[in-house]
Amino acid sequence: MNWNTVSFDWNQARAFLATAEEGSLSAAARALGQTQPTLGRQVAALEAELGVILFERIGRNFTLTPSGLELLDHVRAMGEAAGRISMTASGQSQSIEGQVCISASDAMAAYLLPTVLKRLRESAPKIEIEVVSSNALSDLRRREADIAIRHVRPEQPDLIAKLIRETNAYLYASSAFLETHGRPTTPEALTDLDFIGFGQADRLIAALNGAGLTLTRRNFRVGSESGVVGWELVKHGLGIGIMAEEIAALTPGIERVLPDLPPFTFPIWLTTHRELRSSRRIRVVFDLLQEVLG
């Protein structure tokens, strides 16, 4: 296509089309929300550009010349195409639909994500959500998920990460467990009590002992790789467990152990692939996760 031959000004063509269909400059100006002199200048500029007369003025009305009639069908087709483009663009900007895959730890997926997804269903009902519940890191570069909620910052340069906040975790036990074994008041009082293991026991023991406890593997006779299962074991009185305070707050029959013990703090990162951040449905979900979880 020879682009040098394409010098048509759509604003001038629209002024011509509106005048032809409305029958006068004043009516066309009202239809387009412009002033009559502005519209008249656009029509005159189009006539000068094409080197033809498009209208004959009879009284206050404009009548198309033969050249104007010949041009009208082509400009009307342009107007219809412009309308379709506008409608398509508007529809894409207003209609948010498609699938979004969210990866999160099983505890967060089970206890915190439902609130987010309920809000999302209300605000963007056409978005389809798949939740990948895993305590392993999903590979966003291989599209194992569109958005990941992590407790570690990603290092890959092609990923976008947003630190939405830091959260605190504390020691908890069921009221029934504490009524049976007593409510400890010092770290030393925990030495002979049962704990629930989450994931790698040695790492958990090191973290707890770093906070002033004196625990060994003897204290961890029951555990699970699943945070949800581990929390259920705590709820059923099988031992003391560590959990994020917002999840514990949702759980009846649970008490905080050693309230004066400093919290275990960890970050919450939202991560997505750089290319996906430009997707409107990804952005809507990303922003809502940031709002609710933050």
From TrEMBL:
GO molecular-function term, one example from the UniProt record: DNA-binding transcription factor activity
- Pfam families the record matches: HTH_1, LysR_substrate
Decide whether keyword Cell division is in the record.
Answer: no
Domain HTH lysR-type: residue ranges: 8-65
Gene Ontology BP annotations: DNA-templated transcription
Q: Which UniProt keywords apply?
A: DNA-binding, Transcription, Transcription regulation
What family classification does the UniProt entry report for this protein?
Answer: Belongs to the LysR transcriptional regulatory family.
Q: Report the protein name in the record.
A: LysR family transcriptional regulator
Which organism encodes this protein? Answer: Denitrobaculum tricleocarpae
